[in-house]
Amino acid sequence: METDKKIINVVAAVICDNINTPKKIFATQRGYGEFKGGWEFPGGKVEEGETPQEALKREIMEELATEIKVGDYIKTVEYDYPKFHLSMQCFWCEVVSGNLELKEHEAARWLQKEQIYEVEWLPADVSLVEKIRQIV
Ligand SMILES: Nc1nc2c([nH]c(=O)n2[C@H]2C[C@H](O)[C@@H](COP(=O)(O)OP(=O)(O)OP(=O)(O)O)O2)c(=O)[nH]1
Predict the structure, then answer these.
(1) Which of 6, 40, 66, 90 has an alpha carbon 20 to 30 Å from 78's alpha carbon atom?
(2) How far is the CA of 45 from the centre of ligand 1 (A)?
(3) Per the database record, which ranges form the Nudix hydrolase domain (predicted)?
């Protein structure tokens, strides 16, 4: 990793049907910006003073108008994009209330194990997706 590169700290929610026995995961397609059209796990940048869990709950409420429960930590993705270094903490999550309305995203899909590579994941997500595929 280049030392002069900006580090962006992000949290991502792997929203699943059931946190104890996940069989389906919720993927979203970015609706704007540099990575528009790429598929990801909803989430975003952690703000100062927030825990990762607080950041995730805030982001999912903003992006999907949905309240989530944040469960176990999955992994932290470290990925060097040309313009920044991404450090992304990922957690299993479950819907508590709300309907996963797409406020910012272009599209969304619930994916089962065998469908997981049907969408074009952002480059940073590939290692996470592989780990999840071994679990669901
Ligand atoms: N939320 C999320 N971001 C991801 C994933 N994979 C990945 O490379 N990213 C990148 C895309 C963005 O550069 C960054 C997330 O920041 P963000 O969601 O706040 O995105 P943004 O650039 O639209 O920020 P902003 O305009 O809202 O400030 O991390 C992922 O699975 N989920």
Answers:
(1) 66
(2) 7
(3) 5-136
- Give burial (CB, 10 Å; 0-12/13-18/19+) of 7: exposed
Q: ipTM score here?
A: 0.93
Q: Which residues line ligand 1 (CB under 6 A)?
A: 8, 10, 12, 33, 35, 40-45, 86, 88, 122, 124-125
Q: Which residue do the tokens 């480059």 mark?
A: 123
Measuring CA to CA, which residue among 135, 127, 129 is closest to residue 78? 127
Q: Are 124 and 88 in contact (CB under 8 A)?
A: yes
- In CATH, which superfamily holds the domain spanning 7-133? Nucleoside Triphosphate Pyrophosphohydrolase (3.90.79.10)
pTM score of the predicted model: 0.95
The tens digit of pLDDT for each residue in 8-63 reads 999 999 999 999 999 999 999 999 999 999 999 999 999 999 999 999 999 999 99
Domain ranges in the chain are 7-133
